[in-house]
Amino acid sequence: YKKVQMKNKIRDLRTAKNMTQEALAEVIGVSRQTINAIEKEKFDPSLPTAFKMSKLFELPIEEIFQFE
């Protein structure tokens, strides 16, 4: 069994909206540390968090998160 790696575009999408990690965290309802860990691909977001990001960035989840 191999750990599956999820890639994501959160940092690029966040900076394109001129948002800090703190601002994104507040809108999504998580901590800044959570956003940092997701951006560094050390942590995969919960499904509700992924859906909130999808809605905020107006992109389908699979365009934000890539399953490796």
Brief summary:
With 68 residues, this protein is mostly helical.
Distinctive features:
68 residues; mainly alpha; two-stranded antiparallel sheet; 5 helices; 2 strands; globular
What does this structure look like?
With 68 residues, the protein is mainly alpha-helical. The protein has a two-stranded antiparallel sheet.
Q: What is the topology, as strand order, of the major beta sheet?
A: 1-2
What spatial form do the alpha-carbon principal axes imply?
globular
Mean pLDDT reading: 94
Largest sheet: 2 strands, antiparallel
- State the distance separating the first and last CA atoms: 14 Å
Number of beta-strand segments: 2
The helix tally amounts to 5
Q: Give the ordered list of helices and strands.
A: EHHHHHE
